[in-house]
């Protein structure tokens, strides 16, 4: 859901990632751009952890190429995207990743209607948790959809009554905080809930019941907290330590002990850094 400036959420994410990238020294920037380039397959797509071109990872590759201002990567990716079709995708996540990439790379891409996007998620997303389905739908409608005002009207009603049950993760809590704020609902209670995911060792945990922080939770939570104007001064030093400790040879690691480098966690590491540093001048 977009801010008052009507900037799509994904562009705000990219702005934060770019702020994190620009805050780094030039040698580190060069390492990161080298790593991003190494993750693009010869067919233009970006690869998953197995080295296979993948729509989900290609979305992070696109966003990172936008943040680092690499037009060559975008040109190569555009060819890959032009050859992809929703008929060949296996999940709603892939469908929506494809829609988001086309909205950025293909000026002739047609906007899809509200109910068409919702059907896309429901058709292949039956196993996806309800809050995450709502987040995916919101992200795509915000960037590519028609009938936005109608969607925001119903979204506000749904969010007003929606009370998630169970032990929902930090990332979904953050998404719901952001969504509530964008439709004009109070977020103070959920903001406090989001801050409870902070770890004594720095960063944010996926669940309050575990001790280990991770890059995904930290990046998303810090982005949302910064966007809603939360005071980050108390948690900033620990979060910066966490992000710095998980940088390795051009990439940011997941933060939970996994040493595999990939585009997704590199995106979240830079997102966290940007949310912490973008307003410093």
Keywords, separated by commas or semicolons:
globular, 281 residues, mainly alpha, two-stranded antiparallel ribbon, 13 helices
Please tell me about this protein's structure:
This protein is mainly α. The chain has 13 helices and 2 strands. The protein has a two-stranded antiparallel ribbon with strand order 1-2. α4 packs across α5 (92-105). The longest helix has 15 residues, at 130-144. The radius of gyration is 18 Å and the shape is globular. It starts with 8 loop residues before the first helix and ends with a helix.
Strand content: under 5%
Helix content: 55-70%
Strand order of the largest sheet: 1-2
Structural shape: globular
Question: How is this structure best summarized?
Answer:
Helix content is 59%, strand content 1%. The protein has helices at residues 9-22, 26-38, 55-67, 71-82, 92-105, 114-124, 130-144, 148-161, 170-182, 188-195, 215-227, 236-245, 263-277, and strands at 247-248, 251-252. A hairpin with a 2-residue loop joins strand 1 and strand 2 (251-252).
List the helices and strands and how they pair.
Layout: H1 9-22, H2 26-38, H3 55-67, H4 71-82, H5 92-105, H6 114-124, H7 130-144, H8 148-161, H9 170-182, H10 188-195, H11 215-227, H12 236-245, E1 247-248, E2 251-252, H13 263-277
Antiparallel strand pairs: 1-2
């Amino acid at each position: 859901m977009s801010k008052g400036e009507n900037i799509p959420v994904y562009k705000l994410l990219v702005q934060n990632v770019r702020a994190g990238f620009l805050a780094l020294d030039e040698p580190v920037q060069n390492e990161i751009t080298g790593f991003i380039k190494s993750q693009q397959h010869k067919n233009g797509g970006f690869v998953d952890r197995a080295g296979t071109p993948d729509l989900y990872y290609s979305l992070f590759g696109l966003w990172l190429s936008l943040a680092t201002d690499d037009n060559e990567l975008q040109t190569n990716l555009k060819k890959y995207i032009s050859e992809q079709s929703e008929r060949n995708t296996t999940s709603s996540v892939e469908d929506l990743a494809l829609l988001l990439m086309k909205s950025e790379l293909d000026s002739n891409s047609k906007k899809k209607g509200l109910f068409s996007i919702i059907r896309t998620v429901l058709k292949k997303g039956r196993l996806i948790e309800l809050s995450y389905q709502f987040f995916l739908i919101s992200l795509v409608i915000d960037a590519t959809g028609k009938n936005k005002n109608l969607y925001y009207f119903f979204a506000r009603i749904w969010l007003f009554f929606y009370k998630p049950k169970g032990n929902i993760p930090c990332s979904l809590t953050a998404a719901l905080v952001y969504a509530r704020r964008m439709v004009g609902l109070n977020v103070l209670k959920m903001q406090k809930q989001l801050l409870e995911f902070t770890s004594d060792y720095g960063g944010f945990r996926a669940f309050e019941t575990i001790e280990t922080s991770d890059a995904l939770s930290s990046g998303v939570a810090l982005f949302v907290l910064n966007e809603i104007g939360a005071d980050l001064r108390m948690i900033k030093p620990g979060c910066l330590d966490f992000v710095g400790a998980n940088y390795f040879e051009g990439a940011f690691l997941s933060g939970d002990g996994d040493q595999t480098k990939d585009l997704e966690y590199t995106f979240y590491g830079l997102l966290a850094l940007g949310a912490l540093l973008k307003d410093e001048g």
